[in-house]
């Protein structure tokens, strides 16, 4: 009887092991947590690599910057390889919505409108929109843009918050005409050549442009302050939860701040 019981027990264990093995073989997820990514084994990040120091090209092909390093740290935590896909800024959310990218990290500001179509991760950085003008500009403060009878031409990068805020607050109120460009650098070039009166853009790339180009300055008054976060597909909750948990851990252990400090020094 003991032999029979032992054989039955051994047979039961073999069947259980086979069943477990079959489940694992048929599992299409990339991790035991059950999340899936658009490219197996990779975390695909959509960005616009024209936004230093958050993302920019170093050399001909390598994309570096704050967002690139944060994405790399997230991928490492999840056991994935980072893949960065450079595109126009206004295509990044569409890439996430359409299942062509897992996350958009592009100095992306959280807004109610964007929150309707994507899930935002924990915010990892604060951004400030500023105004770039020529050294001899009659525009001396942000308030000048809102003055009665103002009619300035303002350059922005298309579909950024600089575009959104100036459209809502100035163009729709008849106080300005907004010229939209695919790159922030193109908007700044338009300022240099006199096609626009000023450029509204994030403070960090603004500082880079002003440092590189003569005859430009940033107004002392800020246009608006905003929060940056990653944008993700609303339907992939498992991946969102995994990525968001990773970001929270990276914030808590100081990794995110150390990455930001590497690229942005206090003045």
Question: What's the mean pLDDT score?
Answer: 88
The CATH superfamily of the largest domain is identified as: Periplasmic binding protein-like II
Distance between the termini: 83 Å
Largest pleated sheet: 6 strands, mixed
Structural class: alpha/beta
- CA radius of gyration is 24 Å
Low-confidence stretches: 1-32
> Any idea of the CATH class of the largest domain?
Alpha Beta
Summary keywords:
5-stranded mixed sheet, D-Maltodextrin-Binding Protein, domain 2, 23% strand, 10 helices, 6-stranded mixed sheet, 267 residues, alpha/beta
Question: What this model shows, in words?
Answer:
This protein has 2 domains: 43-124 and 229-263, Periplasmic binding protein-like II (D-Maltodextrin-Binding Protein, domain 2); 127-226, Periplasmic binding protein-like II (D-Maltodextrin-Binding Protein, domain 2, 3-Layer(aba) Sandwich), CATH 3.40.190.10. β2 and β3 form a beta hairpin. α2 packs across α9 (237-252) and α2 packs antiparallel against α10 (255-263). Strands 8, 9, 10, 11, 12 and 13 form a 6-stranded mixed β-sheet that branches. Strands 5-1-6-14-7 form a 5-stranded mixed β-sheet, with helices on both faces. Helix content is 40%, strand content 23%. The chain contains 10 helices and 14 strands. It is α/β, with parallel strands linked by helices. It has helices at 2-25, 66-77, 89-97, 112-115, 142-145, 161-171, 184-192, 203-212, 237-252, 255-263, and strands at 42-47, 50-51, 55-58, 62-64, 81-86, 103-104, 119-120, 125-134, 152-157, 176-181, 198-202, 216-218, 224-228, 231-232.
């Amino acid at each position: 009887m003991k032999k029979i019981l032992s054989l039955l027990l051994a047979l039961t264990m073999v069947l259980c092991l086979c069943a477990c093995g079959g489940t694992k073989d048929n599992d299409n997820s990339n991790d035991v947590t059950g999340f899936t990514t658009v490219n197996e084994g990779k975390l695909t990040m959509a960005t616009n690599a024209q936004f230093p120091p958050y993302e920019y090209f170093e050399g001909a092909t390598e994309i570096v910057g704050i967002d690139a390093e944060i994405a790399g740290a997230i991928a490492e935590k999840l056991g994935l390889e980072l893949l960065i896909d450079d595109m126009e800024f206004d295509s990044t959310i569409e890439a996430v919505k359409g299942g062509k990218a897992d996350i958009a990290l592009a100095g992306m500001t959280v807004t109610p409108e964007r929150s309707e179509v994507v899930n935002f991760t924990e915010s990892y950085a604060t951004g400030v929109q500023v105004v770039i003008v020529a050294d001899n500009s009659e525009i001396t403060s942000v308030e000048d843009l809102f003055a009665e009878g103002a009619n300035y031409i303002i350059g922005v990068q298309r579909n950024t918050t600089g575009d959104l805020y100036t459209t809502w607050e100035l163009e729709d109120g008849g106080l300005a005409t907004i010229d939209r460009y695919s790159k922030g650098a193109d908007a700044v070039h338009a300022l240099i050549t006199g096609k626009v009166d000023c450029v509204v853009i994030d403070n960090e790339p603004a500082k880079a442009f002003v440092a590189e180009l003569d005859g430009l300055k940033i107004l002392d008054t800020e246009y608006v302050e905003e929060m940056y976060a990653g944008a993700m597909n609303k339907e992939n909750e498992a991946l969102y939860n995994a990525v968001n948990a990773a970001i929270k851990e990276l914030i808590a252990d100081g990794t995110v701040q150390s990455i930001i400090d590497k690229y942005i020094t206090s003045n």
